[in-house]
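Sorry, can you check?
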Amino acid sequence: MAVANAQDQNPNSSQPPAQVVDPVRGDPPAPYNAEHDTHERARIRHERERVEAEYKQAQVDCYQRFAVNACLREARRARRVENDRLRAQEIALDDAKRAAEVQSRKQALEERQAEKARQDAAREQEEAARARNRSPSRGNAPAPSGR
């Protein structure tokens, strides 16, 4: 699985940060990092361009051989294997990015809910204090004039 742990990156939180596992290399998990993500996507793009260049060269080489179709099949297979490997890496990056975004939204929602709860509690305390100030105790109330 590409995302080992989809938690936020807040150092004050008790939850660990989003984790990424390279499904091909099996590297240990690392926290999601946007700069790393950009670098990895550029690396994947360059590898994909290399794979396509190799495939085009393989096609040219195949047409120089007697068994052209078998050679072309093998070249397509090799390209497909490499593209599948690169796609798996992209999926891992996408999963980690998505998990980090979800955690960020979750944290923002929790912060808004906590702020609303603080505001509600403060409002209730104010209302309770006003209610205490408005209703004097019976012992201090002026006696009704009895005519």
Remarks:
- Residues 7 and 77 are 38 Å apart (CA to CA).
- Confidence is low (pLDDT under 50) at residues 1-18.
- The radius of gyration is 32 Å.
